[in-house]
Amino acid sequence: MMVSQPLYATAKDGTELFVQDWGSGRPVLFLAAWTFNSSIWGSQIVALNAKGYRCVAPDRRGHGRSDMPATGYDLDTLTDDVAAVIEQRDLRDVTIVAHSMGSIEAVNYLARHGAGRVARLVLVAPTTPYLVQSDDNPDAVPRAMIDAQNAAIAQDFPKWMGENEAPFFTPDTPEATRAWIRGMMLGVPLPVALACRKTISFADLRAAAKGIDRPTLVVHGDQDASAPRALTGAKTASLIGGSKFVVYEGAPHALPLTHSARLLADLLAFIDA
Fold first, then answer.
1. Strand order in the sheet with 16-22
2. Domain ranges of the chain
3. Does the model's pTM come out above 0.90?
């Protein structure tokens, strides 16, 4: 039986967070990528509902149908938003599935709020553990490069998206899908998009990743231009003890869209193991 749930969870600062909550059974929490909202997970939600899982997917603050406050786009506030959803929906034994930016919220959640409610973790094309180059993180992205990207986005976001779209999808990704994603991304106010990018770039989650003691699956494409595998997925998997690292050959960053069937099969096998 479908149980009717409230449409929103309330963050600590009063921000109303839109939440999709479908089905019943063991819960799966979906966290979306930068400038994406919960709609991105539609195919996975429908498929998992049919297999008897409850699927919960929030819109990050400033994204989709959630409130758009001027503040709260720092890592800890975003993480506390996730905690508010988990606690207010009373999710227990939950599998967290996080794509791209969602990975920093998921990994930080385990460090900040503990693993008491979490059964397992799936990181899809993560941006963890630490993107920016520093003395103790030499194999990473130079700060000047991050600043230049953000300046280009600030000047003309649609133009930047156009220039970076090709490697984000596969060549056979339909134009309708591309247009849907462009519209979703442009629906996020530019100050919010830039604040979130800053948070992604400077989130140092190396210690948090090392502390994870839950079964973890890391999935990454070997053609990911947005979060190159060697800097992100591979490093993250090496920090999380006992994690499983799966590389999708010829795959880009947008795996929930471009490799939906394979991702779903791997997800189900991992949850059911």
1. 8-10, 16-22, 53-58, 26-31, 94-99, 118-124, 216-221, 244-248
2. 8-272
3. yes
